[in-house]
Amino acid sequence: MSNNEQTLRFCSSAIMMRIKTPKNGRVRRELEKRAPKLVETGKKTLILQGTKTSGTLNGVLSEIYHLKKGGAVRFTRKNDNIRPFESGGEASLEFFSLKTDCSLFVYGSHSKKRPNNLVIGRMYDHHVYDLVEVGVENFKSIESFNYDKKMAPRVGSKPFIAFVGEGFENVDELKHLKEVLLDLLRGEVVENINLAGVDRAYVCTAISLNKVYLTHCALRLKKSGTVVPRMELVEVGPSMDLVVRRHRLPNEGLRKEAMRTAKDQPKKKVKNVSSDAIEGTIGKIYIPDQKVGDVALPNKAKGVKRERREAKKKEANERASKKQREESE
Amino acid sequence: MTMETETQSQKAFHVDVGNLLAVNPFHSFPSLPASRDELVKECLQEGTKLVQAVADSLFNLPSTEDVDGPLVKLPPPTTKLPREKHLPKPKPLTKWEEFAKKKGIQKRKKEKVVWDEQTGTWKRRFGYDRVNDDKDIPIIEAKMTDEPGVDPFAKRQDDKKKRVEKQEKNRLQNLKQAAKIGALPSHVQLAATALPITGTQAPPKKVTKDELGNVAGMAATSTASGGKFDRKLPGEKPAKKQGKHRKFLPVVEGSGIGSREKEQTESVLNKLISKHSHEILNVGKAVTMYNVKKEKKSRNKRNQEGKSSSATNKLKPKKQLQKKTGKKGPVSSKKGKAK
């Protein structure tokens, strides 16, 4: 990112500071994309793993990456210095988050004490905001499902999300998991959506106090009498049982700051419109000058026809006069 | 947006159309179904109900026709989720902007091209071919206040440089002020190039990785125990050459010249006088060179025999005689000596 810079050296009184601005338009646009905005759209996800992973865990991580293809980054090397729940073990995560501009991460690791462990976490300002640790059981990958391939959901479509169970209201850990899963599965926040393009749904059921069954389904819209079609869910994608192990809620001050939103967006200035107390709303219209001579006349205008006839007559006369001159000479 | 669906048990789902989300907070499993398939089936059933609830509100929204299908404008989502980055802070007014606000100075829009009296054309205000360029001035009239010996053209250039420097200083100060609040524009980064040094303003020299490694080793050897028992940091390499760097002969060994000193002087002398010159001469190479030369000569002789005979006949026997007393002599003698 700091490859092309324009540096302006200047000797200040105490510390020599340097202003670095990008020399390239592409770098400038990238920096602007990463700057904090008033209204935020999608979050990017970072998927990585620890020192040891099992086969099922590898499958889980790669399928999550497939589901979030447009907005996810997958690291395949093992990182043995990342321990999300310990105080010093987050530095590497925060560095990666800063470099890839990802604010969600999914960290997979496997050990005897915690088999098939997934830590789903969120970042605020590239510092760890909150974490949920879940264990994956009964994982079924996409390949093991038989379905009509034509119904497969397309990459990047906005999903329907359904949470079933009273556990999501009563149990603390499940409440937290619900929020994190919503953030993870949501995708981009859009204003307009094309009704023909809704084709996927995630169903999350609370089976017991700490277990959740998550599955990904394709939608079939069947004809019903009204405008609203009848929905049919067909399991296509990965399905797994998530067992909540540990979680860390954000501390209150940080949570309050992160939940703050801009009250009202500055209204976009509409040009050439002004309002008056007496006359109400007035709009200005600018008309360019009319070029009367250059206006294209329709083909069968009588005047044009006459001109052609006259031009032809003139030509004929000239030829005749030329011939006479030649004959005379 | 809470929507009530009249189900058999009259329970309400929480539906958030902006997120395409639906929550059923009332369902519970009194007893887990026996088989996995039944569990999956029940979960899908409940899920279908929820998705249907969302779809009901979604498809009833006013839609506009588009090329790909009906477009619907979603309402803003109701479930609040935390932001990923802090809210952008409004950038502070620069020093000039504050002054202008106080004095009531309005910003005036300037035209791109300005009429140039000298050439009589429209020229740019700044840039390549600009209006009041320093290099276009042919004559500067001397004023009473001018000192003799001062070049007015150079003076104009110096003045311009000073103005530009002042402007850059002001710009840096404004950016520092913005950075203090945290409202630096996204494409600008302020970097400290050097720490303050009292006295001269020379920036510190950049130290390479190898130099730093050497310095660490040198500092370690200056300890009382020679750096042997120092705790090493992870990644620190051991000192390059440990122990003494030079070996000196003992001062006192015996009477006269000692045996080790004798060895030293002998090796030096031998190198100079080349007593063991067989070590200097590469025997193999000499033999190959001789063989090659011999083959060349025999080849030439055969060619000459084929082409002409008279001229070379006189020379032939003489040549052969000379060959026999060639380099073989010293080589053979050296060979004996080498062994």
UniProtKB/TrEMBL annotation, chain A:
InterPro entries: Brix (IPR007109), Rpf2 (IPR039770). Keywords: Nucleus. Residues 43-253 form the Brix domain. The keyword Nucleus applies. Residues 307-329 have a biased composition (Basic and acidic residues). It is found in: Nucleus, Nucleolus. Residues 297-329 are annotated as: Disordered. Belongs to the RPF2 family. This is Ribosome production factor 2 homolog.
Automatic annotation (TrEMBL), chain B:
Involved in ribosomal large subunit assembly. It comes from the Eukaryota. Residues 315-327 have a biased composition (Basic residues). The lineage of its organism: Eukaryota, Viridiplantae, Streptophyta, Embryophyta, Tracheophyta. The keyword Nucleus applies. Residues 65-92, 140-171, 195-339 are annotated as: Disordered. Belongs to the RRS1 family. The keyword Zinc does not apply. PANTHER family: RIBOSOME BIOGENESIS REGULATORY PROTEIN, RIBOSOME BIOGENESIS REGULATORY PROTEIN HOMOLOG. Keywords: Nucleus, Ribosome biogenesis. Residues 153-171, 228-239 have a biased composition (Basic and acidic residues). Residues 216-227 have a biased composition (Low complexity). It is found in: Nucleus. This is Ribosome biogenesis regulatory protein. It holds the Pfam family RRS1.
